[in-house]
């Protein structure tokens, strides 16, 4: 759904293919010619690469593929009119607006999964925050056993930043019977997390009843509040809600609060380092662009933030499921 909206926007409203018809361009030059900010450009261009319409040449410039060439009106025959059948669809027009403006023009009730500054946040509204948190709880519950066994075994402290339902923490504590943990999130979200914890602890799994005594649900603002020290930090589906400059700030804050020898773990869906796919993630990136202030990032982008924050990024790429994976960085 998001791929087709991006494609129609690119052909009929932003003229991406026409801009590239005469010569290849660097990402930055194409972005400037189209008048796009970094975030929409980095949602759109990787998606068009993943769809096989653009490709990077040896000079790392974007150029049209044969398919991309067919999407220009100057090609004869061409597919441009055909792709444009839904060019006036309201969802397409809204996507164009958001690409041009780097997000919706008006957000009177705030942005999903975002609490920033003094403005309104759906995460502080009891009903909306409940439904947004529960919307992710099933995914967390499904992936948590896999993540828990790929994270290190430890008897120290895990900080699950913006932990939502908390399932990643509960499952990790079950696998690490001496460990303790903090789930930090907004107060309304933690009301739901407490219910999930109660359900988890009442399951008949051995040791599940010990988990509530080892976990603290800590209300706070990860952007401004002092963070508790930890041996391990888990940032699951977190960075992808935020623009690049906030990701840099968060990486620095997490690095500061890790104990020496500690590890920052990111669980997310990653773009290829070449920024040309995979399509499942470029589509997810468009969805994140639509709903949040973020997008999908490549592992290379994360590793750059980690290094800038004084951490040592490892080269391991660990898969989990649902197009997700883990990367980590170490605090010397
Ligand atoms: C996409 S959810 C991820 C939840 C969980 N980690 C998971 O993977 O299921 C992002 C979370 O960030 C939280 N969040 C957003 N802004 C925050 C802030 N400033 N401080 C603390 N948590 C915040 C939201 O409330 C939400 O629970």
From TrEMBL:
Keywords: Methyltransferase, S-adenosyl-L-methionine, Transferase. The keyword S-adenosyl-L-methionine applies. GO terms for molecular function: methyltransferase activity. Residues 156-310 form the O-methyltransferase C-terminal domain. One of its GO terms (biological process) is methylation. InterPro entries: COMT-like (IPR016461), COMT_C (IPR001077), SAM-dependent_MTases_sf (IPR029063), WH-like_DNA-bd_sf (IPR036388), WH_DNA-bd_sf (IPR036390). Pfam families: Methyltransf_2. It comes from the Bacteria. CDD domains: AdoMet_MTases. This is Methyltransferase.
């Amino acid at each position: 759904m998001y791929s087709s909206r991006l494609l129609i926007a690119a052909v009929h409203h932003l003229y991406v293919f026409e801009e590239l018809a005469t010569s290849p361009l660097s990402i930055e030059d194409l972005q400037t010619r189209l008048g796009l900010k970094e975030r929409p450009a980095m949602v759109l261009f990787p998606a068009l690469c993943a769809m096989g319409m653009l490709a990077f040449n040896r000079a790392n410039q974007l150029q049209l593929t044969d398919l991309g060439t067919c999407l220009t009106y100057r090609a004869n025959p061409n597919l441009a009119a055909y792709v444009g059948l839904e060019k006036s669809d309201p969802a397409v027009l809204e996507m164009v607006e958001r690409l041009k403006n780097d997000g919706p023009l008006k957000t009177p009730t705030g942005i999903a999964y975002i609490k920033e500054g003094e403005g309104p946040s759906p995460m502080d509204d009891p009903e909306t925050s409940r439904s947004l948190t529960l919307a992710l709880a099933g995914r967390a519950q499904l992936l948590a056993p896999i993540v828990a066994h790929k994270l290190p075994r430890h008897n120290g402290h895990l900080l699950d930043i913006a932990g939502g339902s908390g399932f990643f923490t509960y499952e990790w504590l079950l696998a690490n019977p001496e460990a303790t943990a903090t789930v930090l999130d907004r107060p309304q979200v933690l009301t739901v997390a407490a219910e999930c914890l109660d359900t988890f602890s009442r399951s008949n799994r051995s040791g599940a009843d010990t988990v509530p005594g080892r976990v603290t649900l800590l209300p706070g603002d990860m952007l401004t509040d002092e963070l508790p020290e930890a041996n391990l930090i888990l940032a699951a589906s977190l960075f992808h809600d935020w623009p690049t400059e906030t990701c840099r700030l968060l990486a620095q804050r997490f690095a500061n609060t890790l104990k020496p020898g500690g590890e920052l773990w990111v669980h997310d869906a990653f773009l290829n380092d070449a920024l040309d796919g995979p399509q499942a993630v470029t589509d997810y990136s468009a969805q994140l662009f639509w709903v949040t202030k973020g997008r999908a990032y490549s592992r290379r982008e994360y590793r750059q933030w980690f290094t800038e924050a004084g951490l040592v990024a490892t080269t391991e790429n660990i898969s989990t499921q649902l197009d997700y994976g883990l990367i980590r960085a170490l605090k010397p």
